[in-house]
């Protein structure tokens, strides 16, 4: 008796090998891995841009800090000069205050001298008035009478000498009066000069004090401003350095992630190539477990629930093709839950769909059809949304299959 089942299996295997030879298989990574790589590369480029911008900002801040430090150094030098100037001004102030004190003392002494000179002048004036009155009342006959009344020539000579002495005394008294008057005028002039100098010294002293206050205020203000700017800039530099360190660490992590994703991509390519060259089972050799239909229908719902029926069949066909390939797990559960293969598994959407039983009637129909051996995408083991660089063997709805 002819075993028709074995004959059919051999014919299916031969037909499958013929398809492998006749139709080249394009090998690409899964949709999730490619999307992860593309997203990781975008994030890496964004981080590199942020890091470059932060470094440029850091360079500018460091230049600003150097400038501020130079300014502060110059201000400190200027502050030293100001301190020297202040010492000099304080010396001038002290000297001027001493001069003012000396002038005050001189004015006091001069006032006393002036009062004494005026008193002497007044006495001399009174004396001169008496002499003039006497001379006016007695006239010049007094001197002739004194001469002619002398008892002897010697007495006459003595009286002549007395008259000369009296005349000389009167001349001396007059001259002293004139000298006193001149002295009074000189003292008064000196006093006026001293008072004028005192006013000038006081004005100069006030000016020195104003200079001291202005110089202190100016430099202190500049130093305070420079210190505040330097403190603010140093704080900004610390923040920028911290940001740069964070970006560098993030970039390092992203590079590590990209390295891992590219390694994963290489492994998936190797697996796809291996699948193309590996042996395949016939659908009749698969023993479906209870719940496989429910699991497959809900995966189809998650991946192609909004696609046409042919698109749902195509997604289900990819799952069954993996079950048939010796490269992938040999059960629907193993294929669907293989790490990193179907995004609804990782995102939790499949778990939610299974909990709520979201699969539609068409999803169940598609699951039944592919589990019976139907495929509308040949031996494709991957599908994804269209992307540049991927050459599909089939395009159905919003997915490409390869």
Describe this structure in words.
The chain has 402 residues and is an all-alpha fold. The chain contains ten helices and three strands, in the order ααααααααααβββ. It has helices at residues 4-22, 31-138, 141-148, 153-277, 292-304, 309-324, 332-336, 343-347, 349-356, 361-371, and strands at residues 383-384, 394-396, 399-401. The chain has a three-stranded antiparallel beta sheet, with helices on one face. It is rod-shaped, with a radius of gyration of 62 Å. 19% of the residues are buried.
Instruction: Specify the biggest β-sheet.
Output: 3 strands, antiparallel
What is the string of helix and strand elements?
HHHHHHHHHHEEE
Strand arrangement within the widest β-sheet reads 1-3-2
Percentage of residues in helical conformation: over 70%
Query: What is the strand content?
Result: under 5%
Radius of gyration from CA coordinates: 62 Å
Structural class: mainly alpha
Number of strands: 3
Query: Please, how many helices?
Result: 10
**End-to-end gap:** 41 Å
Return the average pLDDT rounded to an integer: 80
| Poorly predicted tracts of residues | 1-29
Envelope shape = rod-shaped
């Amino acid at each position: 008796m002819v075993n028709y089942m074995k004959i059919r299996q051999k014919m299916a295997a031969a037909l499958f090998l013929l398809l492998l030879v006749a139709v080249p298989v394009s090998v690409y990574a899964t949709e999730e891995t490619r999307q992860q790589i593309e997203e990781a590369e975008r994030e890496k480029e964004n981080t590199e841009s942020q890091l470059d911008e932060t470094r440029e900002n850091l360079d500018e801040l460091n230049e600003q800090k150097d400038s501020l430090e130079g300014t502060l150094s110059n201000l400190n030098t200027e502050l030293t000069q100001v301190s020297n100037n202040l010492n000099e001004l304080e010396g001038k102030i002290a000297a001027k205050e001493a001069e003012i004190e000396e002038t005050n003392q001189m004015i006091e002494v001069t006032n006393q001298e002036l009062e004494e000179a005026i008193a002497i002048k007044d006495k001399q004036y009174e004396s001169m008035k008496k002499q003039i009155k006497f001379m006016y009342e007695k006239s010049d006959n007094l001197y002739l009478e004194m001469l002619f009344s002398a008892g002897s020539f010697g007495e006459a000579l003595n009286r002549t000498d007395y008259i000369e002495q009296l005349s000389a005394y009167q001349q001396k008294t007059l001259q002293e009066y004139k000298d006193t008057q001149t002295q009074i005028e000189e003292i008064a002039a000196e006093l006026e000069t001293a008072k004028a100098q005192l006013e000038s010294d006081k004005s100069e002293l006030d000016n020195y004090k104003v200079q001291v206050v202005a110089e202190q205020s100016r430099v202190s203000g500049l130093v305070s401003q420079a210190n505040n700017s330097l403190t603010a800039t140093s704080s900004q530099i610390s923040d920028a350095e911290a940001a740069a360190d964070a970006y560098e660490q993030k970039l390092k992590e992203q590079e590590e992630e990209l390295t891992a994703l590219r390694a994963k991509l290489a492994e998936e390519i190797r697996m796809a190539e291996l699948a193309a060259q590996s042996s395949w089972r016939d659908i009749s050799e698969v023993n479906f477990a209870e719940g496989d239909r429910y699991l497959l229908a809900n995966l189809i719902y998650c991946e192609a629930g909004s696609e046409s029926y042919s698109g749902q069949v195509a997604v289900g066909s990819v799952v069954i093709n993996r079950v048939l390939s010796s490269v992938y797990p040999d059960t629907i559960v193993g294929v669907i839950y293989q790490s990193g293969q179907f995004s609804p598994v990782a995102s939790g959407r499949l778990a939610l769909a299974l909990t709520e039983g979201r699969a539609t009637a068409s999803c169940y129909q598609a699951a039944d059809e592919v589990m019976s051996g139907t495929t509308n995408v040949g031996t494709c083991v991957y599908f994804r949304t269209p992307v540049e660089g991927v050459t599909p063997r089939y395009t159905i709805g919003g997915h490409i299959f390869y």
